[in-house]
Design a protein that fits this description.
- Pfam families: NTP_transf_3 (PF12804).
- This protein is of the alpha/beta class.
- The protein is 32% helix and 23% strand.
- The strands form four sheets. It has a seven-stranded mixed β-sheet. The chain has a two-stranded antiparallel ribbon with strand order 2-3.
- The longest helix is centred in the last third of the chain and has 12 residues.
- The two termini are 25 Å apart.
């Protein structure tokens, strides 16, 4: 099994912190965000890692990594960064990780052992974190609904109540080649403009609309999402170490 880290973006909401480096190189607890991801992946036994680069790509230098480049990162969204790794996705079972999150190896172990063509993780302790990050958790929280067998029904839409949220999507997925084939077939049916604008949760919803099964895996472990400088300050003051 291999892993792909999507690290093409700048992270403009971090302001001047990303003037010289991409968001994934932002430091927290003595390591860059991408170093935390690589550590978790390695500890889960995944050593073949590709990184999709874009903004300030020359700054990303991870030992033994494979690189795919999204040179139009500023005109595209995360789905097209994922598409840049098509060479791997067609051939290998791949864990996909966003590059602005911190998590432990246990969540990767859960994904590794899942049998589905397409699977994603969700955090069950999200509300405590969202209450610390936001005055009103509903302003940033997104829908996440699953059926009684854990199949994804809806993700990433605006919500009016906590009851619409059974967890929060963590930005960690797994595609088997058979699953990626379904994703690619859908993406190839779109115009270039539609492809470039597609974000990950919109893609997942479109797959659901086409009756493509997406399995979900709950996780209650450590998961931090870095969106802005307030997040960094919160985590530094609230956590001694990871």
């Amino acid at each position: 099994m291999k892993a792909i880290v999507l690290a093409a973006g700048r992270g403009s909401r971090l302001g001047s912190l990303t003037n010289d480096n991409p968001k994934c190189l932002t430091e927290l607890f003595g390591k860059s965000l991408i170093e935390w991801q690589v550590k978790a992946l390695n500890e889960a036994g995944i050593n073949e890692i590709a990184i999709v680069r874009g903004y300030k790509k020359e700054k990303i230098n991870i030992k033994n990594a494979t690189y795919f480049d999204n040179d139009i990162w500023d005109k595209t969204n995360m789905v097209m960064s994922l598409y840049k790794a098509d060479e791997w996705l067609q051939k290998y079972e791949c864990i996909i990780s966003y590059s602005d999150i911190i998590y432990k190896s246990e969540v990767i172990d859960l994904l590794k052992n899942n049998y589905c063509d397409i699977s994603i993780t969700y955090n069950t302790n999200w509300l405590k974190l969202w209450k610390a990050r936001f005055k009103d958790p509903l302003l940033d929280a997104e829908s996440f609904r699953i059926d009684d067998k854990g199949k994804l029904l809806e993700i990433g839409k605006r919500v009016d109540s906590i009851e619409e949220i059974q967890g929060q999507y963590m930005g960690i997925l797994k595609f088997k080649p058979s699953g990626w084939k379904k994703v690619k077939a859908y993406l190839d049916s779109l115009s270039e403009q539609e492809q470039n604008k597609m974000d990950m949760t919109s893609l997942l919803n479109k797959l659901i609309e086409r009756d493509i099964e997406i399995c979900t895996i709950p996780s209650s472990g450590i998961w931090l999402e870095v969106d802005n400088e307030n997040d960094l300050n919160l985590y530094k003051n609230s956590f001694n170490a990871i």
